């Protein structure tokens, strides 16, 4: 159980922060940037939830919880030591990736195929979901970059890749099943 009795600690005043294994790194390290952008994604999901209801809201709530799992995963290096750890760290699982895929498949089955690229917008919820999509893509890029220099959980990258697809399809659902999608018109303003 997490207990936060004091919010500020002053331990980061010199530009360093602690990772999940207790080691300290610069706040601008790639690992901190990756999990910080996952946190930013979570905040955008919180904004989207201001416009969501029913099943979509329940799915977004599950995604928010997954994003905390993902942040915990990315803030804990030393994957090779997981097996010998007294308290194995939380890692994103293939099951979480598969859940997103199943939800994407259900939503996508209700949509007409796209015949044009779409612009972010339409309903308030769709616009927020497109923001979630772009921020989650940034989190994915940072995580992929991190994976080139340090070992990370491959399911973390898969999750972020599926998540941005989930947000795209959900944005179409939020636009009256794609009927209110804003279509891109190439060269319309030349």
Automatic annotation (TrEMBL):
Keyword set includes ATP-binding: yes
Signal peptide location: none
GO molecular function ontology, one term from the record: ATP binding
Known pathway: Cofactor biosynthesis; adenosylcobalamin biosynthesis; adenosylcobalamin from cob(II)yrinate a,c-diamide: step 2/7
GO biological process, one term: cobalamin biosynthetic process
Localization: Cytoplasm
Domain Cobalamin adenosyltransferase-like residue range list: 7-173
InterPro entries recorded: CblAdoTrfase-like (IPR016030), CblAdoTrfase-like_sf (IPR036451), PduO-typ (IPR029499)
GO cellular component: a single term: cytoplasm
Reactions accelerated catalytically: 2 cob(II)alamin + reduced [electron-transfer flavoprotein] + 2 ATP = 2 adenosylcob(III)alamin + 2 triphosphate + oxidized [electron-transfer flavoprotein] + 3 H(+); 2 cob(II)yrinate a,c diamide + reduced [electron-transfer flavoprotein] + 2 ATP = 2 adenosylcob(III)yrinate a,c-diamide + 2 triphosphate + oxidized [electron-transfer flavoprotein] + 3 H(+)
Keywords, sorted A to Z: ATP-binding, Cobalamin biosynthesis, Cytoplasm, Nucleotide-binding, Transferase
Gene3D superfamilies (alphabetical): Cobalamin adenosyltransferase-like
Keyword Nuclease listed: no
Main location: cytoplasm
EC number(s) reported in the record: 2.5.1.17
Family as reported in the entry's similarity comment: Belongs to the Cob(I)alamin adenosyltransferase family.
Official protein name in the record: Corrinoid adenosyltransferase
Source organism (scientific name): Thalassobacter stenotrophicus
Lineage: Bacteria, Pseudomonadati, Pseudomonadota, Alphaproteobacteria, Rhodobacterales
């Amino acid at each position: 159980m997490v207990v936060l009795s004091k919010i500020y600690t002053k331990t980061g005043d010199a530009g360093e922060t602690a990772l999940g294994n207790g080691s300290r790194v610069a706040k601008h390290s790639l690992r901190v940037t990756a999990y910080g952008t996952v946190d930013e994604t979570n905040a955008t999901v919180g904004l989207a939830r201001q416009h969501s209801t029913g099943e979509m809201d329940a799915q977004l709530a599950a995604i928010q919880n997954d994003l905390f799992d993902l942040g915990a995963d990315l803030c804990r290096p030393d994957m090779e030591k997981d097996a010998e750890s007294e308290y194995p760290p939380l890692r994103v699982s293939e099951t979480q990736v598969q859940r997103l895929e199943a939800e994407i498949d259900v939503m996508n089955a209700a949509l007409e195929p796209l015949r044009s690229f779409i612009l972010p917008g339409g309903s308030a919820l769709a616009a927020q979901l497109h923001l979630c999509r772009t921020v989650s893509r940034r989190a994915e890029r940072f995580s992929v970059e991190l994976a080139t220099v340090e070992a990370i959980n491959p399911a973390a990258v898969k999750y972020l890749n599926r998540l941005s697809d989930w947000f795209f399809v959900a944005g179409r659902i939020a636009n009256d099943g794609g009927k209110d999608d804003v279509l891109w018109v190439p060269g319309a303003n030349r």
